[in-house]
Specification:
alpha/beta; Hypothetical Protein Ychn, Chain: A; five-stranded parallel sheet; 19% strand
């Protein structure tokens, strides 16, 4: 009997708390995908990396959506992965110790490989 292939999705998030809607939507879609048993990586790049800093995402709210903290916590509980761009945190002088637990640092090649292997790639 053939083994079922797990669908994979990469969501690239480039907006931080300055744009609550665009910061939240990757996790809204990520949660929906995880509920459908899709393997999901949310990759934070550009200003999106600020969401990975402890104490930041707790203060992001978008009308009509759950608070970002709840969205992210649910995403992680459902098995979603969060990657953060190493050069992006360095350019913003964010140290690894300042990042939320469970965040994985990534470089460009790792993201490219994940995108090549994904069934879908979204960008917010």
């Amino acid at each position: 009997m053939a083994e079922e292939k797990t669908e994979k999705m990469v969501i690239i998030a480039t907006h931080g708390g300055d744009d609550p809607e665009r910061a939240s939507l990757p996790f809204v879609v990520g949660n929906a995908a995880r509920a459908m048993e899709v393997e999901v990586i949310v990759a934070l790049q550009g200003n999106g990396v600020t969401l990975a800093k402890k104490g930041c995402y707790e203060h992001v709210f978008c009308g009509g959506l759950d608070p970002l903290k709840k969205l992210v916590d649910t995403f992680v509980e459902l098995g979603g992965k969060i990657w953060v761009c190493t050069p992006c945190i360095k350019s913003r002088q964010i140290d690894k110790e300042e990042l939320v637990d469970g965040i994985e640092l990534m470089a460009g090649g790792q993201l490219v490989q994940a995108c090549v292997e994904a069934d879908a790639v979204l960008n917010y």
